[in-house]
Amino acid sequence: MASLGQIAEKVRSKNAGPFWLTIDVFCGTPSAYAQVCQGLSTARVARSLGADPGHVKRFEIASLNVVKFSLPRPAVQGAPEDRDMHGASWAALLAELEINAGA
Amino acid sequence: MLQTRRTRVLVPSGALGLNYDKPALARGIAARPDLIAIDGGSTDSGPAYLGRGVSKYARASTKIEWRGLMEARAEAGVPLVIGTSGTCGTDTAVDWMLDITAEIAAETGQRLKVAVLRSSQDPAAMAEAWQAGRIAPLPHAPPVDAEVFASCTNIVALAGAEQINTALATGADIVIAGRTTDTAIIAAMPLARGCHAGASWHGAKIGECGALCASNPQSGVILVDFDEAGFTVTPLADGAKASPHTVSAHMLYENSDPFILYEPGGHLDVTAAEYAAIDDTRVRVTGSEWVAEDRYTVKLEGARIAGYQTVLMALLRDPRYVENAARWAEDITAKCRAKTEERLGLAPDAFRIELRLIGQSASFGDLESRTGDPVEIGVLGIVTAPTEALSDEIGKLLNPYLLHHPLTAAEEQPTFAFPFSPAELSRGAGFEFCLNHVLTLDDPMDAFRLELVTVG
Question: Where are the domains of chain A?
């Protein structure tokens, strides 16, 4: 078992406007890309972020070896319950997920 | 059919205030651009800038960088455009930018024609537009009613290419625009000169963050060349190189959909775009598609006061308290909430008291998946209340708990570290974004106002 952060080159989270969060998983190589595509389900991503799986958009972009997830922000940017104005830290939650190496 | 005139746009950086590489800018001027375009803002820094109508960047930085661009403009003899002036693009932020421009013009002996494009909307008029059915929600927009529009301290509409072109058509030396889409200031001129529409918007999206689409991303300066079939990106700083990978990957950046970008009047679709290296620095892109829509809509952004906040900070270093911080914080929150209801007569849902444990769970709360053994824990107390006086009062109710609250009744009274006095810091009004909507316009200029002024 390895974490997503160990398999991928970089995991980045950003706001996509005040109401959406987007997380880009830069896999780096086709083999890492294949491993992430197969080993990381949208449902698991949603669970780790506390999101409704039906609201998580998933993009698999083979030409860039990137898997991208976009979802309504868990708290609207800047609302009293928001903890992270720029959506900067959410990548860490994904990066620490264990990915089944053999999958 | 409009004869295409190839158009070269120089983008000094992703935002005025982030600085740019001076030798690279000089190279860009030497390359004889048709336009210099820079973005002045974003929602990314949060709702307070829009709520207050102010810039996030220091005036001194803005002035120094803008002076450099005004001098570059004078040398190039082409228009200089700034979009989303002063971070939020309200009329007050536009006036701030105009004031800086007039100061520089006077100091440098330039006499300039400035087109000022204003994007602020009257909240009462927007409430009426909502009731008249001219405003529609975007996906996952917060629920609104007329009262929400009326309660906004600022509402701006995002101008597109049409409004920027109206401003450029005045022959102004400088365009100071209020809120625009990030791309509009770059896409407008190539569109007006008959360049490929998909390429105009796509090249603008790639260029709007400056050299973020290349290696050495902080160097800022890039050129985007538009023509009848596509566009070419050239980063100008030493060592900055664009590749098909860096350019195509930029469509991911702060974008919920990496293939589709909505703009006033239609959307960009880059699904079929092809990225080709011209050499080891430049990238050529073709195949982007602009899909025009019948209805012309502009996006609205609005912010309103979401209560007043007072914050406190305490540090736990005693290992027993570090270990039991969550229980300690829950106990304090419950006791302080009860005291607030009793002594201030507030209803339970009229205020918030939150203690975030820095070093343990401040980033994610209950979603945190890791545990550790921190040396110390920072306790960030955040009080939110309907008025500043009440948030300060609750902050003062919270203060003694953070200073002395014991884990057990029997132990000697503990004391915790406060890093400063007074311990309660009033943040004043907190703001929230409350609109994610579009306004339908009969004419693109309907929601915008253009004024020509001479400075210097």
Answer: 2-99
User: Across the interface, which of B255, B258, B301 has its CB nearest the CB of A61?
Assistant: B258
Whether residue B194 sits in one domain with residue B243: yes
Separation of first and last alpha carbons in chain A: 10
Lowest-confidence range among A57-66, B180-189, B213-222? B213-222
In a domain, B294, yes or no: yes
Say yes or no: ipTM exceeds 0.90. Answer: yes
Range of the domain at B336: 318-416
Residues B270 and B323 in one domain: no
How many structural domains compose chain B? 2
**B368 and B246 in a common domain:** no
Which residue type sits at B191?
A: L
Q: For residue range A13-38, list pLDDT tens digits in order.
A: 999 999 999 999 999 999 999 999 99
Shared domain for B280 and B348, answered yes or no, is no
Domain membership of residue B78 (yes or no) is yes
Structure tokens at B105: 């013009």
CA distance A68 to B118: 36
A77/B363 Cβ within 8 A: no
Q: Could you tell me if residue B309 is inside a domain?
A: no
Smallest Cα distance from A30 to chain B, Å: 14
Q: How many CA atoms lie within 13 A of B414 on its CB side?
A: 21
**Where does residue B149 rank: exposed (0-12), middle (13-18), buried (19+ CB within 10 A)?**
buried
Ramachandran quadrant class, B46 (left: phi over 0; alpha: psi -120 to 50; beta: rest): left
Q: How many Cβ atoms are within 10 Å of B23's Cβ, its own excluded?
A: 12
Q: Is A61 on the interface with B (CB under 8 A)?
A: yes
Q: How far apart are CA B105 and CA B67, in angstroms?
A: 9
Class of the domain covering A2-99:
alpha beta
**Partner residue facing A20 (CB), from B256, B301, B370:** B256
Residues 6+ apart with CB under 8 A from A56: A42, A45, A46, A49, A69, A70, A71
Q: Are residues B200 and B253 in the same domain?
A: yes
Same domain? For B345 and B262 the reply is: no
Q: Which of A47, A68, A73, A89 to mutate to test the interface with B (most CBs of B within 10 A)?
A: A68
**Residue B217 has what pLDDT?**
72
Residues B298 and B323 in one domain: no
- The verdict on residue B425 lying in a domain is no
Residue B422, preceding bond cis, omega within 30 degrees?
yes
Whether residue A57 lies within 8 A of chain B, CB to CB, comes out as: yes
Q: How many angstroms separate the first and last alpha carbons of chain B?
A: 40
